[in-house]
């Protein structure tokens, strides 16, 4: 802290930074409510993971070549030839997965604690937008290695919007840059992944953070009573954000770093064969966070299945304006909690069905074949699926 | 003129005892095949012995061995246990011919001295033709390929046949037999090392380790081993030693690559333990700091 004070003093001798620093210092030291726990570090963890993604992504961009001819070979080069390239790529891939998980849990935590309610509606709206941007990162990044999985998962995913009425074909064409996934698609996805989405994320995240600091962490009291002042929070057992809560965030960041490195080293992602538009592999599936949507396509007519997640996203975005009840405490919002739990169970079930679909599994000593809709069929001893 | 001659031959064959169906079948054969059949070893059994009444004229390759086996049961039994049958390779007519079939001991036979093998197995033939076995076998009139590999009961060649194959012609105290044993020993060493390397690679793959580059080296080693085995047919020791050495080097580089993968993995795990140590130490420091803040 001494170094920071020296820097501020050095700067304030030359520029009018003192008032701004005082305000920042005040907002950073504002206490967090007493109910703040480890779950309230998820937002910071998402920022920490984003920073890791930026660093590892920039390092990979030194060698990555976004062309159909060179993309796969350049990823192989990064993995096999560049010093620590394997680690950088694995950290980036696992980091993307953890980032989606952390942002998902952060959203869920905010829903449970009623943090989206008045006066923090815009913080929630920006948060949902951030969630969408993070999914966009996952979607566009998945294609870049240009292997069979990437190519066919993107082919399936970009076909789906085409089934929507009116704008569907236009959206599909816009995503692909042509009738099929190819050079134009890779170029578009690359630009989106390394330029458009990072700019969007940084902008929205800055606004989101600004609002979080200005308004402070949401209390658990009703929205129609005045929020506790800093002194009241401290008296109720709350602690200053800096340094108390930031230390907790530091501990969480160290833990997620350890988990990330462990996954990167012990459970690496392998490249599939290079993309081949003439050979469709069996059982192509998207990343886990798109599995529920992917599975939904198998049960419902395509336009409905494509529209449903969009409608769900819109409801999520406008949630603070739809749910206008004054209670924040989860125990006092049984309907919201029940609806949230139902959505979670349905999403998880769809995801699990998507994961097991078109696979063979042994359950309770018997072998089962799970068909495309995830329905198990007992495999007879002669090897064929039974009825 | 030729047509009149054909009719005359058919009439003569009719007098000899051929049935009308046989005569009509013969009449439908091409001129050259017609002549070949009448000169073949099967001319006495007639067409209907193979082209059974009520069955399609054209005999499928899948059915053919059974038809031949009706008269040649021992050969059929051996053939159905061979690699040619299980591997859906050659059937009877590919080695013996069909309408022109002759006794195998006759030089006109397609299968004479088993030289027919080179029709499909071009690589071994190329080297065999350059080596001393060809001239020696021609001189003594012994079978060529079949002397070592067998004929109807042929199996995929293994190094285990070397001893008995050489001993078939060369007594055990001769330099030729000793040379065969030496080459067999060299190849056995390479084969065993290759098997070991392949097993280790399979283990690595089971552990979820990417072995793309190592698999490529294994393919190269297997290719080199196949080339060495082809060169063996020429019995040129200089060439054989060179190919064996080449295979050995490729196999060794594969074993080195596997060791390097394992070392690398071990190093990564050690690195991970060190990183966790640093992380836990920092977490403890932060917890202590938090505790101190709580007191103050």
* Distance separating the two termini of chain A: 70 Å
The fraction of residues in strands of chain A falls at under 5%
The biggest beta sheet of chain B reads: none
Poorly predicted runs of chain B: 1-5
Number of strands of chain A: 5
Structural class of chain B: mainly alpha
| Terminal residue distance of chain B | 126 Å
> Which outline of chain B best applies?
elongated
Number of helices of chain A: 15
E-strand count of chain B: 0
Could you give a short description of this structure?
Chain A is mainly alpha-helical. Chain A has 15 helices and five strands.
Please characterize this protein's 3D structure.
The complex is a heterodimer of chains A (387) and B (296). Chain A has 387 residues and is mainly alpha-helical. Helices cover 63% and strands 4% of the residues of chain A. A 3-stranded antiparallel β-sheet of chain A has the order 3-4-5, with no helix packed on it. In chain A, strand 4 and strand 5 (376-378) form a beta hairpin. The longest helix of chain A has 33 residues, at 183-215. Chain A starts with a helix and ends in a 9-residue tail after the last strand. Chain B is mostly helical. The longest helix of chain B has 59 residues, at 237-295. The radius of gyration of chain B is 32 Å and the shape is elongated. In chain B, helix 1 packs antiparallel against helix 2 and helix 12 (175-206) packs parallel to helix 14 (237-295). Chain A binds chain B through residues 76, 79-80, 243-244, 247-248, 250-251, 254-255, 257-258, 261-262, 265-268, 270-271, and chain B through 208, 210, 212-213, 268-269, 271-272, 275-276, 279, 282-283, 286-287, 289-290, 293.
């Amino acid at each position: 802290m001494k170094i920071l004070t020296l820097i501020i003093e050095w700067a304030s001798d030359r520029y009018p930074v003192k008032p701004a620093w005082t305000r920042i210092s005040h907002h950073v030291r504002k206490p967090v409510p007493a109910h703040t726990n480890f779950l309230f570090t998820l937002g910071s963890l998402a920022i920490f993971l984003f920073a890791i993604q930026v660093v590892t992504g920039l390092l990979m961009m030194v060698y990555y070549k976004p062309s159909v001819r060179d993309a796969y070979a350049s990823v192989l080069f990064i993995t096999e030839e560049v010093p620590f390239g394997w680690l950088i790529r694995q950290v980036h891939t696992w980091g993307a997965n953890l980032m989606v998980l952390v942002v998902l849990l952060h959203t869920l935590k905010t829903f449970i604690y009623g943090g989206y309610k008045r006066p923090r509606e815009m913080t929630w709206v920006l948060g949902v937008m951030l969630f969408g941007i993070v999914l966009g990162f996952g979607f566009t990044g998945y294609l870049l290695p240009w292997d069979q999985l990437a190519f066919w998962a993107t082919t399936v995913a970009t076909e789906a919007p085409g089934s929507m009425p009116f704008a569907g074909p236009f959206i599909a064409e816009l995503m692909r840059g042509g009738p099929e996934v190819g050079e134009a698609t890779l170029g578009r996805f690359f630009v989106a992944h390394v330029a458009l989405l990072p700019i969007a994320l940084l902008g929205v995240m800055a606004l989101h953070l600004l609002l979080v600091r200005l308004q402070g962490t949401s209390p658990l009291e009703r929205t129609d009573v005045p929020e506790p002042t800093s002194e009241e929070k401290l008296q109720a057992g709350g602690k200053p954000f800096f340094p108390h809560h930031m230390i907790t965030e530091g501990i969480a960041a160290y833990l997620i770093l350890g988990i990330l490195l462990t996954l990167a080293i012990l459970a690496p992602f392998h490249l599939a064969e290079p993309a081949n538009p003439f050979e469709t592999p069996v059982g192509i599936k998207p990343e886990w966070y798109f599995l529920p949507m992917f599975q939904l396509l198998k049960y419902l007519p395509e336009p409905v299945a494509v529209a449903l997640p969009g409608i769900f996203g819109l409801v999520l975005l406008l949630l603070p304006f739809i749910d206008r009840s004054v209670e924040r405490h989860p125990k006092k919002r049984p309907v919201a909690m029940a609806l949230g739990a139902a959505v979670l169970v349905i999403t998880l079930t769809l995801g699990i069905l998507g994961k097991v679909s078109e696979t063979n599994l042994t359950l309770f000593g018997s072998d089962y074949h799970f068909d495309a809709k995830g329905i198990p069929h007992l495999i007879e001893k002669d090897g064929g699926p039974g009825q | 003129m030729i047509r009149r001659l054909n009719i005359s031959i058919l009439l003569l064959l009719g007098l000899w005892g051929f049935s009308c169906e046989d005569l009509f079948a013969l009449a439908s054969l091409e001129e050259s095949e017609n002549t070949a059949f009448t000169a073949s070893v099967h001319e006495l059994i007639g067409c209907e012995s193979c082209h059974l009444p009520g069955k399609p004229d054209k005999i499928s390759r899948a059915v053919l061995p059974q038809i031949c086996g009706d008269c040649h049961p021992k050969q059929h039994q051996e053939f159905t246990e061979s690699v040619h049958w299980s591997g859906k390779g050659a059937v009877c007519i590919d080695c013996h011919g069909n309408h022109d079939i002759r006794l195998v001991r006759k030089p006109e036979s397609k299968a004479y001295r088993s030289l027919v093998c080179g029709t499909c197995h071009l690589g071994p033939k190329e080297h065999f033709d350059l080596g001393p076995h060809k001239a020696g076998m021609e001189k003594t009139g012994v079978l060529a390929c079949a002397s070592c590999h067998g004929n109807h009961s042929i199996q995929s060649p293994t190094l285990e046949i070397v001893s008995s194959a050489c001993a078939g012609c060369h007594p055990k105290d001769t330099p030729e037999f000793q040379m065969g044993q030496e080459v067999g020993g060299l190849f056995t060493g390479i084969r065993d090392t290759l098997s070991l390397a392949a097993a280790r690679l399979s283990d690595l793959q089971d552990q979820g380790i990417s072995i793309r580059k190592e698999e490529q080296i294994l393919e190269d080693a297997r290719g080199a081993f196949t080339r060495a085995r082809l060169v063996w047919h020429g019995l040129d020791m200089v060439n054989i030693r060179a190919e064996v050495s080449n295979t050995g080097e490729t196999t060794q580089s594969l074993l080195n690559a596997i060791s390097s993968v394992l070392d690398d993995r071990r190093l990564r795990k050690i690195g991970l333990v060190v990183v966790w140590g640093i992380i836990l130490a920092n977490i403890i420091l932060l917890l202590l700091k938090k505790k101190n803040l709580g007191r103050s």
